[in-house]
Design a protein that fits this description.
The complex is a heterotetramer of chains A (about 525), B (about 525), C (about 100) and D (about 625).
Chain A lengths: L8 H23 L5 H24 L5 E3 L4 E3 L1 H21 L22 H6 L9 H17 L3 H18 L7 H33 L4 H11 L3 H17 L8 H8 L2 H26 L4 H23 L5 H21 L9 H23 L2 E3 L2 E2 L9 H4 L1 H15 L5 H15 L3 H27 L12 E2 L4 H19 L2 H10 L5
Antiparallel strand pairs in A: 1-2, 3-4, 3-5
Chain B lengths: L5 H18 L5 H25 L8 E9 L4 E7 L1 H20 L11 H20 L3 H10 L1 H11 L4 H34 L6 H6 L4 H18 L8 H8 L2 H11 L1 H14 L1 H27 L4 H21 L3 H32 L7 E2 L1 H4 L1 H14 L6 H13 L4 H26 L4 E2 L14 H5 L15 H19 L2 H17 L6
Antiparallel strand pairs in B: 1-2, 3-4
Chain C lengths: L2 H21 L3 H26 L3 H31 L13
Helix pairs in contact in C: 1-2, 2-3
The chains are: A mainly alpha (about 525), B mainly alpha (about 525), C mainly alpha (about 100), D mainly alpha (about 625).
């Protein structure tokens, strides 16, 4: 005799919104006439994500932490904060998806993925005005998965969420309209490696289950408290962490990142860089703090190490990149390292400013990197975006505004004061140093100095170099963005500045939200 | 008068001015120049009024104002000045209009707009004021780093042939220093958090902490390295010759005249009072760096063939003197060091300007491309000579007073270092007079004077390489009215402060002796 | 305790799967290896379920199967599309993106 | 050091002494071409006015029973324990210097009106002259070592400007730079002495220092004395810093007169005399002073014998004469007055000689080669007479000024009656003979013998504006000696400064010395006549000469030594350091950058693009992670 699990619909509202929108999107895909499908899909997706955003924000007013859905979901400060972040960034990414003014073919996505790349049919499809709209429900599902991921209070749910967020990503990263070979290759790589990684996660899950007899984070915690730590548990932890670090693209599990970021359609890359990072770290935080918060002495050195590796690899490898998307990929690896510096900042007693700092950093990084990729979509040449560094030379003289905005984002990524990036860095490094991890902070600071070099190089190119291809009269053009991209740029740029100059309120929010349940 | 937000205004006015200039429509360069000059003059006026409002006998920090900025970090937007900061503000107020006047007709690299240049200059001025006026360490750090951006663009967009390299080098050097300092800043915050219950960045609060010596050493190093790179002390100096020589003259003047002073200012304002024990512990090492720097940089200056590089190296040598004065831990020496910061700004500023005017005429930075200019351009030569004499600290010029104070003040505490440093004044005479003789004296020759390129003057080898400005005809060789107007105030200041420096000393001394008290009364 | 054998077997299967991913070229086979890993996990889960005397493990195994199925759909789709373009399912052929 | 009183009356305005010429310089420099027409007159007027003022002040000073006046002006530098006030001290010592400087200075100004009449830059020249006088007056009138130091370096600057007056000549520019640098070397000594005083006594004013010097340890006093001496050597062109003085001849001749007779080189003597209270307490330092004096006067005399450049000869004679003065002041109380007397007398005749030489050059189209002179006495009668008187005074012809003063010095030296006294005294006597030799040689080659002029040279007497000062100076050089030694004894006048002159027990009767000197002098003259007078002077210097002559011609290789000891190694060091800085220090930084870049591309190779490699990496990572965790748990 099984009694129905308790469900607090209020707490689930955000998730219901997104998944609802996703399902509706599927139906629309099936039944709505193709001609007018695109606006509808966009609307549905936006309504879903924005609705989710609104509801999470509503939940934050006088909310009490609770574990619902038979203990499967934790609706607490971090969950809500991160869900809001994901929903918001997700909405912005969807706007990038919906941009139709830039590409002469009205969309960044292939019309029909089934047509072999380079085939005659493909070539004629390249120019037709038709756009395909499956990406919207797919992306919406991914967003839902991510929001579920950060709220999962149960390893199994976490696994399911992981798959729900990954599978659509695998697909849409293969849907680029131009340079399809690269896009497909990215998809394959991402898929195979992703599946590989989730297998690790799953095995870890199984071992933990074996060790503690449960997959509830709370139970694991108490079990690890009671039974100490046996080999199974530790192995389980290790494999779980591997699975998550992969998603967070932390070295040495980063190898897929540059290839996929470069190959995937730029809006999708932006989406992955911003939202996946948030989701993955949300899960990492929850797993480490809630389930293994008492066993921190086991994982702290590990995180310490991978943080350093990740920062160094990201910063150093970024130096010699010539493709902007790839460069930003390495920068995202480095930033994963900085984020882990914040994770270290978890106090021994679960207090400490690490949690808040990391969440704030996730928000600022998401916004900034999203904006940066959005700018990338503007600079184009004959076949799509002009992402090679040399093509950006002298951009400032051609269109000062775009150059200025890009400069803002780059300075933020470099962590120059009065930008969001600096506030975030300051927060996480403070958290780390408070926990006495000042050597780590020092390494992080030096790494960011190294990383600053390749951000600077872009600025140097844009401002101090003669325009590319000026003598041949060709070279990349800077497209006039349509409404969606304009909105994205406006929001991200404003936020990047605002969070740099007056971060107070958002910091409070993160601070107050920074308590886990269970 | 004292509760009026002078400092805030001094930051806001140039910042707004920068925005206005930048917003001007394309092609309105003249208007841009006029606006920029106007704004900078307003700032100068504000600086003077601030000086009037400042009560020499009064509290250590005056005209203070504080607004909470980032609550979670305990950061507040706190401004306030002591005597040291005041004189630096005055220096900024004087130099910026001069620089703008000097850059009036600069030839900029391909398709660079004048108005962008002036906008950056004004923004830089705002940042510099902020750095000296901040009494909150976090705020100081923010200005300290943000200051890099305008300078980076000034060098990178408007500089010489190797400007990209120079700009990036400048930025990275400073950034590395700044980030190391950031760690120390946070560390300081954490200490305050543990000692005062809640973390703060307020300078006055931090001064009260008593920090465990071990931690002090670490934090001191964090701050020190940043400042030593800024100042710059040997061996952290190699960025300065590149930046100094590649930057446009205006930028170079502000870079060496004011920006680098942030380093020495930082020693005095932050390193000594916050970490007295560590300061005492590291003093010998710093003194070694300082003294080595004095001689090393002076010898290098003699070896330069590029005038701007030469001047940059002389500055490094001078910064050695300043550091010596600060870390000798006596009121006289430290007062001299602060005065040195001001005087060096004026003297080397003038030197850079004059060299710049020469380069603008000849189009070459190589000493070898000039000769006998004095015969053709007596005014230019005269200004050059005054600047040079000030830079070799001849009595009667302002620099003498400060150098004399530094040396005589350091001697009782650090005789050996002082004696070695004193040898530096011979080298100073050498590098200045060598440059002066080669460019101004001797028979007229060089790029300025070859009428027909058929028979090139001796030593113009490098000229063609670094030719950036069109060669002028001999008629306009001497200083124009505008240039005269730019040079005169500085010359006047050099003489005036050389004869009657006491007013400045009266302003500086209280702040310095207060610092010495923080240090724990080393100075009896 | 006999259950250990099941665990060991599962571990062996997992390893075989992992190694397979590394050594096989054909995308399909690589993918099958991943599936093998998943199923080894299922075995583990069931074993633990038996050991702890709870049914959670068995239920989880069902979850895993479902997820695996979904994965197969997506995976095969992707591999299919690239196969049709390149006329080869070898994962080594797809390396335009590197360094 | 006698008690000083606040000055009132005219003395209170003695700062005008400095202000007047300074104002003149300022007007001439800032006024620009507008002042070209009357600039030289203004310049001269200011100095003459200063001279008058100096006279009046001196008379008032003579009137005071406490012959010393302190003029406090304003606070110069006051911070911490350091309190430097700008103020003047007008006492007998500074008075005689003020008179010498302004007096001889005015004459030289007047002379220059004629001498520089045709130089387009005459205005600038007078501006610099005024500056020079002002600086020198500050040097002697200042009431603290800092004030002295300011004047000290001011003189250095003025000399730099004047020596480089014809800066289009590389030689002039180089000579000026050399002068400034060598002076700077001396200045370091002076500066360090001041630092030491402040460190030990907390003050730099004469009153304070001389008041407290007694309390110091002997070593410290000696150190101060030696450091001051270094400064003095720099300014006065004494060994080892004498090399710049002859080169200074590159400046216009009046400048040489000013530098050598009235200002600059006398500063060193002034410094030591002024610091008498310090030197009185340190035998060692005094001995060194004497030694250096003796050495230098010998070097100067020897070098003087070899040159054919009339100005160079006079220059080396200055070096040697200043040597006499150093020797004298080195003696301490016994010698101060003698030294100063010789300084004043020298001021007259050396100025006269230089102006005469200038007049000769004026006549010979600015040639300085004596081998191209000869037989000028009937062409330039005035010049010849005045020059001749100066010459007699210099070689110590009986009852001319040089005779008395030099005689007094040598007496005092022997009166020491110890090895030092005898050696230095002996050297002094020997040098007196050499002086007679080279000066006679100069006379003979210039004014007597056959005319060896280059064609196109038509010697003519200089205008009266030039000859008049020469006459005045000639008169001075004739009588000043007798005046200063016997008629109006300098010793009484300086008594407030150096105290009661004690009657030393003479080792050798003054008469004996007098006669001996005269004999030696005559020998020198005779020798000169034998070598130069009786046979033809070749128009080009003989090449095959004895090593002694060669050494003398090279001024005993002073420059060679300086170059090989300091200049070349310095240049090598500089070059080496430039290399180190670029390759080493900066290289390290760029190297680091390069290393990062290199490792970046090397690590980048790991990103092969093969899925299976990536998977392997992940697996490896997973194993590592698991291993690490297990290790942590185990250990």
């Amino acid at each position: 005799m099984i009694e129905a699990p308790d469900l607090s619909l209020a707490a689930l509202a955000p998730l219901l919104f997104v998944f609802g929108a996703a399902c509706i999107g599927v139906l629309v895909e099936a039944f709505w006439p193709r001609e007018s499908r695109h606006p509808v899909q966009v609307t549905v997706a936006l309504v879903g994500t924005l609705g989710a955003l609104v509801t999470t924000l509503l939940l934050t007013v006088d909310f009490e932490r609770e574990i619902t859905a038979a203990g499967a979901l934790a609706v607490d400060g971090p969950a809500l904060f991160l869900q809001a972040t994901i929903a918001g960034l997700g909405a912005l990414s969807l706007l990038l998806f919906a941009e139709r003014a830039l590409d002469p073919a009205r969309s960044a996505f292939v019309v029909s993925a089934a047509v072999p790349a380079g085939s005659p049919r493909d070539r004629e499809l390249l120019t037709v005005q038709r756009v395909q709209t499956e990406v919207y429900p797919l992306a919406t599902f991914a967003i839902g998965g991510m929001m579920l991921f950060v709220a999962a209070n149960d390893l199994l749910i976490m696994f399911v969420a992981l798959e729900v967020l990954s599978l659509p990503l695998y697909l849409i990263s293969g849907l680029a309209r131009r340079r399809r070979l690269l896009s497909q290759e990215a998809a394959v790589k991402y898929f195979l490696l992703g599946a590989f990684a989730s297998a690790f996660f799953l095995y870890g899950l199984a071992l933990v289950y074996g060790a503690t007899g449960s997959v509830r984070l709370g139970d694991i915690r108490s079990a690890s408290l009671a039974g100490g730590t046996d080999v199974l548990l530790v192995l389980g932890l290790a494999l779980l962490v591997v699975g998550l670090l992969f998603k967070a693209s932390v070295a040495p599990f980063h190898t897929w990142t540059p290839d996929v970021y470069q190959g995937a359609p730029t809006p999708v890359t932006a989406f992955m860089a911003a939202c996946t990072k948030v989701a993955a770290f949300g899960a990492i935080l929850r797993l480490l703090y809630v389930a293994f918060g008492t066993a921190e002495w086991t994982w702290r050195p590990l995180v310490y190490a991978v943080a350093i590796v990740s920062m160094v690899v990201g910063a150093v490898l970024g130096l010699t990149q010539t493709d902007l998307k790839r460069m930003l990929a390495y920068s995202s690896i480095a930033h994963a390292g900085f984020l882990l510096t914040g994770v270290i900042g978890l106090g021994a007693a679960g207090d400490g400013s690490g949690l808040a700092a990391t969440m704030f950093y996730l928000l600022t990084y998401g916004l900034t990197t999203l904006g940066a990729f959005a700018v990338l979509t503007l600079v184009r040449d004959g076949d799509g975006e002009a992402t090679h560094l040399s093509q950006w030379a002298g951009l400032a003289s051609r269109s000062p505004l775009v150059a200025a905005v890009m400069t803002l984002f780059l300075l933020a990524l470099a962590g120059i004061p009065l930008t969001a990036g600096f506030t975030g860095k300051f927060a996480v490094f403070r958290a780390a140093i408070e926990e006495g991890a000042w050597p780590l902070a020092l390494v992080a600071l030096l790494a960011s100095a190294v990383a600053a070099f390749f951000y600077l190089r872009v600025i140097v190119l844009m401002y101090f170099s003669p325009p590319a291809g000026a003598e041949r009269g060709q070279g990349p053009t800077v497209g006039v963005p349509g409404m969606p991209t304009t909105i994205v740029l406006a929001i991200t740029a404003t936020a990047t500045l605002a969070l740099g100059i007056v971060p107070g309120s958002v910091l409070d929010l993160a601070e107050r939200a920074a308590i886990f349940v269970g | 008068m004292t509760d009026f937000p002078w400092l805030l205004l001094m930051i806001a006015v140039p910042a707004v001015g920068a925005a206005v200039v930048a917003a001007l429509p394309k092609g309105r360069d003249l208007l841009a120049k006029q606006v920029a000059l106007g704004v900078s003059l307003v700032v100068l006026l504000l600086a003077v009024l601030t000086a009037i409002a400042f009560d020499t006998g009064g509290d250590r920090f005056q005209l203070t104002s504080s607004v909470t900025w980032i609550e979670d970090f305990g950061v507040s937007f706190a401004l306030g000045i002591d005597g040291i900061a005041l004189v630096m503000l005055l220096l900024i107020g004087v130099l910026v209009p001069v620089v703008i006047g000097a850059s009036w007709n600069d030839e900029l690299p391909e398709q660079r707009s004048m108005k962008a240049y002036f906008a950056w200059l004004l923004l830089l001025e705002a940042m510099m004021v902020g750095v000296f006026a901040a009494t909150d360490v976090f705020l100081f750090y923010v200005f300290f780093e943000a200051m890099l951006v305008p300078m980076y663009f000034i060098i990178g967009s408007f500089g010489g042939p190797r400007r990209q390299y120079a700009a990036v080098k400048f930025f990275l050097y400073s950034l590395v220093g700044g980030l190391i300092m950031l760690a120390a800043v946070i560390g300081l915050y954490v200490v305050s958090n543990s000692q005062l219950g809640e973390g703060t960045f307020a300078f006055d609060a931090l001064r009260q902490l008593d920090i465990d010596p071990g931690v002090q050493k670490l934090l001191f190093l964090g701050f020190f390295i940043a400042f030593a790179i800024k100042a710059p002390l040997v061996p952290f100096h190699t960025w300065l010759p590149d930046s100094g020589s590649e930057a446009p003259i205006g930028g170079a003047v502000l870079l060496v005249g004011v920006l680098d002073k942030v380093g020495t200012f930082g020693f005095l304002r932050y390193c000594l009072p916050l970490f007295p024990d560590a300061s005492r512990f590291f003093a010998p090492f710093v003194l070694v760096l300082a003294v080595v720097g004095i001689l090393y940089a002076a010898l290098l200056a003699m070896g330069q063939s590029d005038m701007k590089r030469l001047v940059s190296y002389t500055s490094i040598s001078h910064f050695g003197f300043i550091a010596l004065g600060i870390f000798a831990f006596t009121t006289e020496a430290a007062t001299g060091a602060v005065l040195y910061m001001v005087n060096h700004g004026i003297a080397t500023g003038l030197l850079f300007l004059v060299v710049g005017m020469l380069i603008a005429r000849g189009g070459s930075r190589q000493i070898g491309d000039y000769g006998g200019v004095a015969a053709k351009a007596p005014l230019l030569a005269g200004a050059f000579l005054v600047a040079g004499l000030a830079s070799l600290a001849l009595p009667g010029t302002n620099s003498f007073v400060s150098e004399f104070l530094v040396l005589i003040g350091s001697f009782p505490e650090e005789p050996v270092f002082t004696i070695i440093a004193t040898v530096g004044i011979i080298l100073a005479a050498l590098y200045i007079l060598l440059m002066y003789q080669r460019t101004m004296h001797g028979p007229a020759r060089g790029v300025l004077l070859q009428e027909d390129p058929a028979e090139p003057a001796p030593g113009t080898g490098g000229a063609t390489a670094v030719l950036t400005a069109p060669r002028r005809s001999l008629r306009v060789l001497d200083l124009s009215r505008r240039e005269l107007a730019v040079v005169t105030p500085l010359v006047a200041l050099i003489i005036a402060l050389g004869v009657y420096p006491q007013p400045l000393l009266d302003v500086i001394e209280p702040a310095v002796s207060a610092t010495m008290d923080d240090l724990g009364g080393i100075d009896q | 305790m006999t259950l250990t054998y099941y665990l060991v077997l599962a571990a062996i299967l997992f390893t075989i799967g992992a190694v397979g991913v590394l050594v096989r070229r054909n995308a399909i086979v690589v993918f099958m290896c991943v599936e093998l890993m998943l199923n080894s996990v299922n075995l583990t889960l069931v074993t633990f379920a038996r050991a702890t005397g709870t049914i959670d493990g068995q239920i989880m195994a069902f979850f895993v199967m479902v997820v695996a199925a979904a994965e197969v759909v997506v995976g095969l789709a992707i591999i299919m599309s690239i196969y049709r373009t390149r006329r080869s399912a070898s994962v080594d052929d797809a390396n335009l993106l590197k360094y | 050091m006698s008690e000083v009183l606040p000055a009132e009356g005219l003395l209170g305005a003695s700062w005008l002494l400095i202000a007047l010429p300074l104002a003149g310089a300022a007007v001439l420099l800032l006024g620009g071409r507008r002042t070209d027409r009357w600039g030289h007159l203004l310049g001269t007027a200011t100095v003459v006015a200063a001279f008058v003022l100096a006279l009046l002040c001196t008379f008032q000073l003579a009137g005071l029973e406490e012959r010393s006046a302190d003029v406090d002006l304003f606070t110069f530098i006051s911070t911490g324990d350091l309190d430097v006030r700008a103020g003047l001290l007008f006492d007998p010592l500074s008075a005689i210097f003020a008179l010498l400087i302004t007096g001889v200075g005015s004459l030289i100004h007047v002379y220059s009106i004629g001498y520089m009449a045709h130089d387009p830059a005459r205005r600038r020249f007078f501006a610099y002259l005024n500056l020079f006088v002002a600086a020198m007056l500050l040097l002697v009138l200042g009431n603290s070592f800092v004030a002295l130091y300011v004047g000290w370096e001011g003189v250095g600057l003025a000399s730099y400007l004047l020596i480089a007056f014809w800066y289009t000549r590389p030689a002039a520019a180089t000579a000026a730079k050399k002068a400034f640098i060598m002076n700077r070397v001396g200045d370091v000594g002076l500066a360090l002495a001041i630092f030491l005083m402040f460190a030990q006594l907390g003050t730099t004013s004469y009153a304070g220092v001389f008041g407290g010097v007694g309390t110091l340890a002997g070593g410290t006093i000696t150190a101060i004395g030696l450091l001051l001496l270094l400064g003095a050597c720099g300014k006065s062109g004494q060994f080892p810093l004498q090399a710049w003085l002859p080169d200074a001849m590159e400046g216009p001749t009046p400048v040489s007169a000013l530098i050598h007779a009235a200002t600059m080189v006398t500063a060193g003597v002034y410094l030591i005399a002024r610091s008498a209270p310090i030197y009185d307490l340190t035998e060692t330092a005094r001995t060194v002073v004497m030694a250096i004096g003796a050495l230098t006067l010998l070097i100067g005399a020897i070098a003087g014998c070899a040159y054919d450049d009339i100005k160079k000869v006079l220059a080396y004679s200055t070096v040697s004469q200043i040597g006499y003065m150093f020797l004298a002041v080195g003696l301490g109380p016994a010698g101060y007055v003698a030294g100063l007397a010789h300084l004043l007398a020298h001021g007259f005749f050396k100025a006269g000689l230089f102006l005469g030489a200038g007049s000769v050059m004026h006549a010979m189209n600015d040639s300085v080669d004596m081998r191209r002179f000869g037989g000028l006495w009937k062409k330039l009668p005035v010049t010849f007479v005045t020059f001749g008187l100066g010459y007699l005074a210099l070689i110590g012809f009986p009852f001319l000024s040089g005779y008395f003063t030099k005689d007094a010095i040598i007496e005092a030296t022997f009166d020491r009656d110890d090895w030092l006294g005898w050696t230095t005294g002996g050297i002094a006597v020997l040098a007196a003979g050499l002086t007679a030799f080279y000066m006679t040689r100069l006379m003979l080659m210039t004014f007597f013998g056959r005319a060896r002029w280059e064609e196109g040279v038509h010697p003519h007497e200089s205008p009266s504006v030039m000859t008049a000062p020469m006459v005045v100076l000639a008169v001075g050089s004739v009588f000043s000696g007798a005046l200063l030694v016997s008629i109006f004894p300098l010793s009484d006048w300086l008594e407030p400064v150096f105290g009661e002159p004690e009657e030393a027990a003479h080792v050798i009767a003054p008469a004996t010395i007098g006669i001996a000197l005269t004999v030696i002098m005559l020998l020198g003259v005779l020798a000169a006549w034998l070598f130069v007078g009786r046979r033809e002077v070749p128009v080009t210097a003989p090449v095959r000469v004895s090593p002694v002559t060669r050494a003398a011609r090279n001024a005993l290789y002073a420059d060679t030594i300086n170059e090989s000891l300091f200049m070349r190694p310095g240049q090598w060091l500089t070059r080496a350091l430039v290399w180190v800085d670029n390759r080493g220090v900066d290289g390290a930084v760029n190297g680091l950058a390069a290393t990062l870049g290199g490792s970046s591309s090397r690590l980048g190779r790991a990103q092969t693009g093969f899925v299976r490699t990536y998977a392997l990496g992940m697996l490896g990572g997973a194993v590592l992670v698991a291993g690490a965790l297990l290790a942590v748990t185990a250990g």
